[in-house]
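Hi Y.,

Following your request, here is the sequence exactly as I used it, all 71 residues.
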Amino acid sequence: MEWLVWIGTALSLAGLAGLVWCIVSVARAKRQGLSDEAMRAKLQRIVPANLGALAVSAIGLMCVVMGIALA
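Below is the corresponding structure, written out as tokens. Let me know if you'd prefer a different format.
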């Protein structure tokens, strides 16, 4: 089940990259000094990406654990 570990690692890294992108996007939005409505609109576009990246990372970690358990 070594292949499952590698697939899980790739998914976890992709999810981590997505989370870093979300953090950078929010930091940029804060630095821009947007109004409350503009900030809310920008954050509403980032939240689904954040949740998706978190889900991909969690699925990747599950794959790694299953690959280790089945090995």
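The mean pLDDT is 96.

Thanks again,
Q.
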